[in-house]
Write a structure and sequence with these properties.
There is one protein chain. The protein is of the alpha/beta class and 436 residues long. It has one domain: Single-stranded right-handed beta-helix, Pectin lyase-like (Pectate Lyase C-like, 3 Solenoid). 17% of the residues lie in helices and 28% in strands. It is built from 8 helices and 31 strands. The strands form 5 sheets. Strands 1-2-5-8-13-16-20-24-27-30 form a 10-stranded parallel beta sheet. The protein has a 9-stranded parallel beta sheet with strand order 3-6-9-14-17-21-25-28-31, with no helix packed on it. It has an 8-stranded parallel beta sheet with strand order 4-7-12-15-19-23-26-29, with no helix packed on it. It holds the Pfam family Pectate_lyase_4.
């Protein structure tokens, strides 16, 4: 076994901490060092060498859902009536009257880069019965904080409607599903959720709003580890150095910092069916122009509704590969999709409705690069619906070899289908023995 001298460990710790200025970890001890090392390995394992294969896989499912196949029609008859689900992720589970008897079917429904995410599918159910969050060191059994720090996989559900005011950031461990279906659950007026150096997490069916920056302090981040945290930023959800994460049917608004941040080499992420309103800097994918390890980042953004009162960053991207497909952009004040440091952005079948301001009609925004530089970046718009003067400035070589034949090239549905695909974005009113 290789022995690392304490002095070398300390120097390595400083080097790691220098790259992680937003990690909120005040004491980057051996436990966190090991987590960071494992998270980097997970990211390399989850990275897809041909990302456009994943984009076409999603587009194929969208096409089948909207145009129908024999198997789809048989499924509709089996459900004894019209299915309200309008996109392939929802079609997978929402039409079933007894969805609550098989909640874990949800884990089979994710598409896009996060398609291998199973969350707590292989674990027991944990029922949250207590909305309090009073003890950060020894969380009370029955609380959400107690649930998310457990060592084993868990499928976390809620006993009733509740509003949870998190005293400080909620640090979620690997192999967890937080499933708000069947209850009206709000995470509000406190801190947000942190998914840091972990893998395989599903967040579904919550309202997250009015999130404040935390003060930090001693917080238990697992059953067998307690650590000192610095102040949190006030994001609704932060994904930091994590892989295989699916965020679905979340309603988000009015947070101190971002609604969803995906940073520090996170990859294999899908964000779908979310509804976002009343916020400035909506989504940040890659936090630093200097952190080139975010080249591994691969994120799918599908079937979301970017609604009233949004200003910018839907998303703002750095370094990685981002598939923005069949989302509805009905409001922005500055721009919709932006980025720096040569991100690849594939925009397919979205609807972009520009604001009245004639200076904000452009969908895209490039930062910190001359035109001669950003023209080399790959930003493509395919089948997008541009309304009220919206326009998308493309870049890159459109004839670039994609690595597969034309027969395999299944286009996304055009932006005119978006209102149908995103009709049920946000947290759903789901009741037992009734299709959602």
């Amino acid at each position: 076994m290789m022995i690392i001298k304490p002095s070398l460990l300390f120097l390595f710790s400083l080097a790691v901490m220098a790259q992680m200025v937003r990690a909120n970890i005040a004491d980057f001890d051996e436990v966190w060092l090991e987590r960071a090392k494992e998270a980097k390995k997970n990211a390399l394992d989850a990275y897809h060498p041909d990302p456009e294969e994943v984009t076409q896989h999603l587009n194929h499912h969208v096409r089948m859902t909207l145009e129908g196949t024999n198997s789809t029609r048989r499924g509709l008859r089996k459900n004894k009536g019209p299915c309200k689900a309008t996109n392939p992720i929802d079609r997978c589970w929402r039409c079933r009257k007894h969805w609550a008897a098989n909640r874990k079917r949800l884990a089979s429904c994710v598409l896009g880069f996060g398609r291998k995410t199973t969350g707590g599918k292989h674990g027991k159910y944990y029922i949250v019965t207590d909305s309090s969050d009073n003890d950060l060191v020894n969380p009370k059994p029955g609380t959400l904080r107690h649930a998310v720090i457990q060592r084993e996989p868990l499928w976390i559900i809620f006993a009733r409607d509740m509003v949870i005011r998190l005293s400080e950031e909620l640090i979620v461990t690997s192999h967890k599903t937080i499933d708000g279906r069947g209850a009206n659950v709000h995470i509000a007026h406190g801190a947000g959720l942190t998914i840091q150096f972990v893998k395989n997490v599903i967040i579904h069916g919550l309202h997250i709003h009015d999130i404040h920056a935390g003060n930090g302090g001693m917080i238990r981040d697992s059953i067998d580890h307690l650590g000192l945290r610095t102040a949190s930023d006030g994001d609704a959800i932060t994904v930091f150095g994590s892989t295989n994460v699916w965020i679905d049917h979340i309603s988000m608004s009015n947070c101190k910092d971002g609604l969803v941040d995906v940073v520090q080499g996170s990859t294999a992420i899908t964000i779908s069916n979310c509804h976002m309103t009343h916020h400035n800097e909506v989504m940040l994918f890659g936090a630093s122009d200097s952190y080139s390890e975010d080249k591994i980042m691969q994120v799918t953004l599908a079937f979301n509704h970017f609604g009233r009162g949004l200003v910018q960053r839907m998303p703002r991207c750095r370094w990685g590969f981002f598939h923005v497909v069949n989302n509805d952009y009905t409001h922005w004040l500055m721009y919709a999709v932006g980025g720096s440091q040569q991100p690849t952005i594939i925009s397919q079948g979205n609807r972009y409705i520009a604001p009245p301001d004639r200076n904000a009609k452009e969908v895209t925004k490039r930062d910190y690069a001359e035109e001669s530089v950003w023209k080399q970046w790959t930003w493509r718009s395919e089948g997008d619906l541009m309304m009220n003067g919206a326009f998308f400035v493309q870049a890159g070589d459109p004839s670039k070899n994609r690595g597969f034949s034309k027969k395999e090239m299944i286009s996304a549905k055009p932006g005119s289908f978006v209102t149908r695909l995103t009709r049920f974005a946000g947290a759903l009113d789901c009741y037992d023995k009734k299709a959602c």
